[in-house]
Amino acid sequence: MQPAARRKYNNIFVVVLLVLGVVLGLALRRPTGTEDAKHLDSYRYKTAAVASDHQTCSTIGKNILKQGGSAADSGIASMICVGLVNCHNTGIGGGHFSVYYNRAAGTAFSINAREKAPLAATEDMYVRATDASTFGGLSVAVPGELQGFYQLHQRAGRLPWKDLFTPSIQLAREGFPIGGALYIAMDQNKDIILNDESLSDQLTDGNGNLLEEGDIIRFPELAATMETIANNGSSDAFYNGELAAMIAAEIHARDGIITTQDLEVFEAEVDTNPLMIKLDDFKLYSSQLPSGGPVLSFIMNILDGRPVAIHCFGAKVRGNITGIFYNNEMDDFSTPNTTNFYGVPASPVNFIKPGKRPMSSMVPVIVIDGQGDVRLVTGGAGGTTITTSSALSS
To answer: Closest Cα to residue 229, out of 172, 174, 165, 168?
Structure first.
């Protein structure tokens, strides 16, 4: 893009959210003239572009913009949807990192809504039960997803909080066709699903058969939970009160140790001075530790990494009452003398402590040029390969 063309875009807002390894990028641009590079018209958009890993969710994000919503509104609404249609690897039972850039102000901030270890967690809690860090209630870390969304909405949202949930609540109640990604995950975990009453209730036809790709699936319990959160006007309903008690009880029933106190004291962290890496005339914004941002800063000149997809349904725990699929992010901690799901050996820096966040490879990225215009929005899925894959794409 020529320097003159760069100045055509007066107002750019970009938000990147990584939720359990899933990336969503959104850019809002308002041109004052015609596009100069005609060969780029096939992927240029005059007003906005929304990208998520499901078409339905991207459409929801687009519609939020049409209603007058901000990039943050669109990103949140899109990711609420992704947590529904791709419930195997993201959702309100997990956590995320996000980065937001405001072109007009030339500022950026990041949000760390990574899950935390429960207050009753101990360094050696998985020494004699390593599988418990991956499956079941003991593998569930305190979810940060919704509080992270709310912090973003408070700082950059425009529409009412409730409006961001409405499309997904309707989708959950009325149903939608099972997509390829969700079906592959279901098929890979078939035995676990068929032998778990709660997962089976949601993901089978009632006769012991997995639902197929293209079958209509509904989430009535999750719809009711999202409606409670939406009507509250904030994320507070998830972390306090009746719903929080239900969440703690569901996890406890599967041998978890999360309590209502864990939920009540949880806080997402807002960083108004996010990681910024200078690359010649470009600036790369990302999130600080415990994300993969600092590691990315060291490997930007090393092009390495092969993305892989991990399908796991988190802890294999679904709440019977809330319909929430819970994370298994406790496995991202290190346990003395063990290796985790990805084959990573234990590191004392990442040993479990109460209220601590585990290290993560997730790394949301926004790259801007010398004029302050956004040139790249990226991230990725793939566990420990996320950081290197993001470096490759950057």
So the answer is: 165
Q: What's phi and psi for 110, nearest 5 deg?
A: -125, 160
- How far from the centroid of its chain's Cα atoms is residue 144's Cα? 10
pLDDT 10s digits, 183-238: 999 999 999 999 999 999 999 998 999 999 999 999 999 999 999 999 999 999 99
Q: Are 20 and 90 in contact (CB under 8 A)?
A: yes
Kind of pairing, strands 275-279 and 9-19?
A: unpaired
What digits encode the pLDDT tens for the residues 323-367?
Answer: 999 999 998 899 998 876 667 788 999 999 999 999 887 878 888
Residues near 261 by Cβ (< 8 Å), separated by ≥ 6? 119
Beta bridge partners of 366: 285, 377
Where exactly are the structural domains of the chain? 3-175+218-393
Q: pTM to 2 decimals?
A: 0.86
390 contacts 363 by C-beta, under 8 angstroms: yes
Q: What angle do CA 126, 128, 132 make, to 5 degrees?
A: 45
Q: Closest Cα partner for 394 from 275, 306, 279? A: 279
Q: Identify which of 113, 115, 120 has the alpha carbon closest to the alpha carbon of residue 75.
A: 113
The H or E element containing residue 23 is strand 22-31
For residue 390, how many C-alpha atoms fall within 13 Å in the half-sphere facing its CB?
A: 36
Scanning the structure block, which residue is given the tokens 């991956």? 134
